[in-house]
Design goal:
Blueprint (H helix, E strand, L loop, with lengths): L6 H11 L3 E6 L13 H16 L3 E6 L2 H8 L9 H24 L5 E6 L2 H4 L1 H16 L3 E6 L13 H11 L4 E6 L4 E2 L10 E2 L1 E2 L2 H4 L17 H13 L4 E5 L3 H5 L6 E3 L8 H9 L4 E5 L1 H8 L10 E6 L6 E5 L5 E6 L4 H5 L6 H8 L13 E3 L1
Parallel strand pairs: 1-2, 1-5, 2-4, 3-4, 5-9, 8-10, 11-13
Antiparallel strand pairs: 6-7, 9-10, 11-12, 13-14, 14-15
Helix pairs in contact: 2-4, 3-4, 7-9
C-alpha cells in the first residue's frame, strides 16, 4: 500500500496534472495561527498556488474552512466556542472576514471569486442539488473561482456535514471534477498519527476501500477544525468511488500537488465515473424509507442493470413520496441498494408481490412499472 515509482502511480499523477476541473479543500488549521486568528501569510500563499493553476487553465473550486476560526478571535474569545448558537454567530462574523481576504488575494492575480454557502440539506434534496450544480458550473464557465463553505451561521448539529472534507467530495461530484486535493496540516497519510513511533508514510493508495481498516486515523484532529484524518479518508473514498484521483498533503505543498508532483498521498480512482444523477443517489441522498425484497430480487439487482419490480418486494418500510430516495433491503435487513421510488409508500403497499400483468389488471396501466427504475438505482 505504500506505493512507489510504479506506472500506476505515474499514470494517476498524470491525471491530476492534466485535470481541467479540480476541487481543493483547505482546513482551518492550515489558515490560522495557533491562537485561532486568520493567518494572512498562509492564506495568500495558498491563493498564489491556486492562482498559478487557474492562470494555466485549470477550473478551480475552493472548499474552505475557517469562518468560525477567523471570527472568534475578532469577537474576543480565547478559543473556539463550544455551543451551537455562539458558533453560528462567530461564523457569521468570520465568514465576511474570510471572504474579504480571499477576494483581495485573488484580485492580485486578476481573478474573481464567488461565495457559495451551503448546508447538508442543499445536497440531499434533488432540486437544491441541481440548483447548486447549475450555479457552480456557471461560475466556472465565467472564469470565476467558487469559494464554498458550509453555512455554519445557519446549520445546526442535526443537519450539518460536520466537516468540509465530506462536503468537498460531494462538491467534486456536483461539478464533475477531474481531481480532488485535500490540504491539511500533515504532509501525507500515515499508518497511524505521525507523532507515534513507528508511523509509516503512505505515498500511493491503489484502493482506498481496502486501506481504511489498515490505518489508525484516530487522534489526528486539529484543535481548530471539526475533521480529522478519518474524515479525509472518507472523502477520499467517496471521490475514488466516483472515478476521480485524490491528493492529500500539507497546504504549503498545494502548488506541487496541483501540478501532479510526487507529494503527499495519492489515492487512485477505484471505478469509472458514474453520472451526476447516480452519484447523487449514492452519496448525497438521504432515504426516507424503503423496500424489503426477496432473494430473487436481490440476485437480479446485484446482477446489474435490473429494476426493482413489485413482484420481488415483500414489504414497505417507512413513509415516502414518489421521487424520494429509498433503501432496498434484503430479507435479513441488509442494505442492498439505494434508489428513487417510483411510487408513494401508500401506493406501493397495494403493489407488493404483483407481476406486471397483475398490476395492469388490478390497479391500471399507471402501476405497471418498476418500484425503482434501474436508471435511478445504485448498489451499495
Amino acid at each position: 500500500m505504500t506505493g512507489g515509482e510504479g506506472s500506476d502511480e505515474a499514470a494517476v499523477r498524470s491525471r491530476v496534472a492534466q485535470a481541467r476541473t479540480m476541487v481543493v479543500k483547505v482546513g482551518s488549521s492550515s489558515l490560522t495561527d495557533p491562537h485561532g486568528h486568520l493567518d494572512l501569510g498562509r492564506l495568500r500563499s495558498l491563493v498564489g498556488a491556486l492562482a498559478s493553476a487557474a492562470l494555466d487553465g485549470a477550473r478551480l473550486v475552493l472548499v474552505t474552512s475557517g469562518a468560525i476560526a477567523a471570527g472568534f478571535g475578532t469577537l474576543g474569545f480565547d478559543q473556539r466556542p463550544g455551543d451551537v448558537a455562539t458558533q453560528q454567530a462567530t461564523a457569521s462574523v468570520g465568514q465576511g472576514l474570510l471572504m474579504a481576504q480571499y477576494e483581495t488575494a485573488f484580485a492580485r492575480y486578476g481573478l474573481s471569486v464567488g461565495q457559495i454557502l451551503i448546508t447538508a440539506r442543499d445536497t440531499t434534496h434533488a432540486v437544491q442539488y441541481r440548483n447548486a450544480r447549475r450555479t457552480l458550473c456557471r461560475l466556472l464557465d465565467l472564469g470565476v473561482t467558487p469559494i464554498v463553505n458550509e453555512n455554519d451561521a445557519l446549520a445546526s448539529n442535526e443537519i450539518r456535514f460536520g466537516d468540509n472534507d465530506h462536503l468537498s467530495a460531494l462538491i467534486a461530484n456536483i461539478v464533475s471534477a477531474d481531481a480532488l486535493v485535500l490540504l491539511t496540516d500533515v504532509d501525507a497519510l500515515y499508518t497511524e498519527p505521525p507523532s507515534r513511533p513507528g508511523a509509516r508514510r503512505i505515498g500511493f493508495v491503489p484502493d482506498v476501500a481496502a486501506i481504511m481498516d489498515q490505518v489508525d486515523a484516530q487522534g489526528s484532529v486539529s484543535g481548530l477544525g471539526t475533521g480529522g484524518m478519518s474524515t479525509k479518508l472518507e472523502a477520499a473514498r467517496i471521490a475514488a468511488a466516483s472515478g476521480m484521483p485524490v491528493v492529500l498533503t500539507r497546504a504549503d505543498l498545494a502548488g506541487p500537488a496541483l501540478a501532479g508532483d510526487r507529494v503527499g498521498t495519492l489515492f487512485a480512482p477505484i471505478r469509472p465515473r458514474g453520472s451526476s444523477h447516480r452519484l447523487w443517489i449514492k452519496f448525497a441522498s438521504r432515504p426516507r424509507g424503503g423496500y424489503l425484497v426477496d432473494q430473487g430480487a436481490v440476485k437480479a439487482l446485484r446482477g446489474g442493470r435490473a429494476s426493482l419490480l413489485a413482484a420481488g418486494a415483500r414489504s414497505v418500510q417507512g413513509e415516502f413520496s414518489a421521487g424520494d430516495p429509498v433503501w432496498i433491503h434484503d430479507e435479513s435487513g441488509h442494505q442492498v441498494a439505494k434508489g428513487l421510488s417510483g411510487y408513494d409508500s401508500e401506493e406501493a403497499q397495494d403493489m407488493l408481490g404483483l407481476n406486471t400483468k397483475e398490476l395492469r389488471r388490478r390497479l391500471g396501466a399507471h402501476y405497471a412499472h418498476p418500484l425503482v427504475h434501474r436508471d435511478s438505482l445504485v448498489l451499495v
